[in-house]
Amino acid sequence: MIIWRICIALGGLALGALIALAFADGDFGAAGAWLMADPWGQVTLADLYLGFFFLALVIALFERQPLRAAFWIVPLPFLGNVWAAIWLVLALPELARRLKP
C-alpha cells in the first residue's frame, strides 16, 4: 500500500511541477485558444472533465460526511489531478480496506 501511495504522491508532485513550469514559461491564453479550436483539444478537455466527474462520484460514495465530500469535490475542476492525487494518497488505505471482500 505504501508503494502505491508514494507513486501517487510522486505523480501529483511531478504534475504540480509541470504546472508551475507551464505557468512560468507558457502562454495560457494561446494554449486555451488552441484547445478550444482543435477537435483533439476539445476531446482532451472533455476527457479530463469527465474523469473529474467520475472521481467526484467515487468521492461522494466514499466520504461519509457530505461537507467532507464537498471539500474534495468542489476544487476538482480547478485544481485537477493534483487535488485528486492528494485525496487518493489520504484515502487509499481506507478505500482498499472497503473494497476487499
TrEMBL record:
Keywords: Membrane, Transmembrane, Transmembrane helix. The chain crosses the membrane at residues 40-62, 69-92. This is DUF2834 domain-containing protein.
